[in-house]
Amino acid sequence: MHTSLQRHTLVLEGHIIDSLALPQLMDLVMDLGGSFEVQELRVGKRKTDASYCRIDISAPDGDTLDEILRRARGLGAVTATEEPVRTAVVQQAGVYPEGFFSSSNLPTQVLVDGRWVLVERQEMDCAIAVDRVAGRAWCVPFPDATPGVEVIVGHTGVRVLPLERSRQTEIFSFMSSEVSAEKPKKLLIARIAEEMRTVRAEGQRILVVSGPAVVHTGAARSLSRLIELGYVQVLFAGNALAVHDVEAALFGTALGVNLASGTPIEHGHEHHMRAVNRVRAAGSLRAMVASGELASGVMKSAIDHRVEVVLAGSVRDAGPL
Q1: Mean pLDDT on 160-171
Q2: How far apart are CA 173 and CA 160, in angstroms?
Q3: So what's the pLDDT on residue 88?
Q4: Closest Cα partner for 32 from 61, 74, 75, 1?
Q5: Strand, coil or helix: what is 170?
Q6: Domains (ranges, CATH) in the chain?
Q7: By C-alpha distance, which of 214, 270, 283 is closest to 242?
Q8: Which of 218, 240, 72 is nearest to 155 (CA)?
Q9: What phi and psi, each to the nearest 5 degrees, are found at residue 119?
Q10: What does 125-153 look like in DSSP terms, one character per residue?
Q11: Residue 98: which residues within 8 A CB-CB, separation 6 or more?
Q12: Rounded CA gap, 296 and 305, in Å?
């Protein structure tokens, strides 16, 4: 019995060799159980030249093909017969429509009325607004999301342009450094715990200064438990702790990484922005707790147990609470 293969044609343009977008696409197709056949490949002759590839994708079933196409978009691939962007109108000031496309810092184009338009004011963690009359698209941060603004939802009609891969070693790499344990931690933790017991026994208060690493490392449950047991009266933190704590409660991820398995989730990099959007839609963290929408995490414990909380933001903060 023969199964009819599902097929689709994808197009990659730009620095698809230097950025490794083309080999990554090939690996993606094979890893998901599909196959490919390159129909056309034009490789740029100089470093500044763009390359072009048209590649036929085959998959054993429709679900597998859909998954391949969905992930391929993250590499900058588009279908040969790409559909235009889908949009929704902002209804509430400072709140994006559900399912909004979350931008990255990479150059992005969107298909508006049959024409690929380069997104202006490109920055990460924003929605993308569209003006069909003017034929423009631009990144719009939360404060500029006013009622009536038309923003892109979903991933249809959006392509991310791959950048040329740097030939130099990066000095810094975000969230990829190794942890160096220079001192034994067990004894230090025991001493801190004993000091906390003494402070509370004397009726004094404890202030905890925490960052998002508490969530990234899976230690948020421990901090929540300390709050519930009465060992935290004041919490100083940055905006990131609250955002990633809410992300963990809503999606089970921190910066898009599954906290249970430690593996990245498809489109997980958008989760923290979707978490911020949910808080803004609810009106406050306290309102989310009261409605039951926020059912776990450090912030819920702090609100439930009347902990005084100070969240500090930065000038560049894309998702302030």
Answers
A1: 55
A2: 21
A3: 96
A4: 61
A5: coil
A6: 6-79 (3.30.70.2690), 86-160 (2.40.420.10), 185-312 (3.40.50.10690)
A7: 214
A8: 72
A9: -70, 130
A10: S-EEEEETTTTEEEEE-GGG--TT-EEEE
A11: 88, 153, 277
A12: 13
